Amino acid sequence: MKKWGILTVCLVLAGSLLAGCGEKNKDQASVSDNGKAEGKTIVLGTSADFPPYEFHKMINGKDQIVGFDIEIAKQIAADMGANLEVKDMDFKALLAELSSGRVDFVISGMTPDENRKKEVDFSNNYYKAQQAVVVREADKAKYTTMKSLEGVSFGIQTGSIQEDIAKTIPGAKITGLGKINDIIMQLSSSRVDASIMEKPVAEAFIKNVKGLAIANAVPDYQEDGYAIGVKKGNKELVDQINKTLDRLNQEKKIDQFVSEASDLAASK
Ligand code: ARG
Question: Rounded to whole angstroms, how far apart are CA atoms 5 and 186?
Answer without folding.
Answer: 19
